[in-house]
From TrEMBL:
Organism name: Epilithonimonas hispanica
NCBIfam families: SUF_assoc
Protein name per UniProt: SUF system Fe-S cluster assembly protein
Annotated ranges, domain MIP18 family-like: 13-84
Superkingdom of the organism of origin: Bacteria
Listed InterPro entries: Fe-S_Maturation_MIP18, FSCA_dom_sf, MIP18-like, SUF_FeS_clus_asmbl-assoc
Length: 108
C-alpha cells in the first residue's frame, strides 16, 4: 500500500517528535534542535532515510547515536524500514543550531 502525501507528512511529524527525544550526551539539547539532522526522506512505501551528522567525527557516541536514531525512527507507526546515513559534509557548526537550542545553551 502506498501512502498519500498527507500520511507521509503525518509520519514525518511523528519522526521529528521522536528525534527530539534523542540527546547528544555532551550537550543538553536534542539532536534535531542541535541541527544534526540534515534531512528526513520518506518514500510512499514507508521507507525512511535520515541523513545526519555528529558534532565531530571523533564524537564518543559515533557508534551508538545512529543506532538509537534508527531504533526511534523504526518505532514510528507507518515506518516500514529505517536507514541512517552519517555524513560530515557540510561540517556541523554552532550556526546550524535552532534559536531554541542557542537559547537553551545561553548563546542568545
Amino acid at each position: 500500500m502506498k501512502y498519500t502525501d498527507d500520511q507521509i507528512a503525518d509520519i514525518g511529524e511523528e519522526i521529528i517528535k521522536e528525534l527530539k527525544t534523542v540527546f547528544d550526551p555532551e550537550i543538553p539539547v536534542d539532536i534535531y534542535e542541535l541541527g544534526l539532522v540534515y534531512d528526513v526522506q520518506i518514500s510512499d512505501e514507508g521507507e525512511v532515510l535520515v541523513i545526519m551528522t555528529l558534532t565531530s567525527p571523533n564524537c564518543p557516541v559515533a557508534e551508538t547515536l545512529p543506532v538509537e536514531v534508527e531504533d526511534k525512527v523504526r518505532g514510528v507507526e507507518g515506518v516500514k524500514s529505517a536507514k541512517i546515513e552519517l555524513t560530515f559534509e557540510p561540517t556541523w557548526t554552532k550556526e546550524m543550531m535552532s534559536e531554541e537550542a542557542k537559547f537553551e545553551l545561553g548563546m542568545l
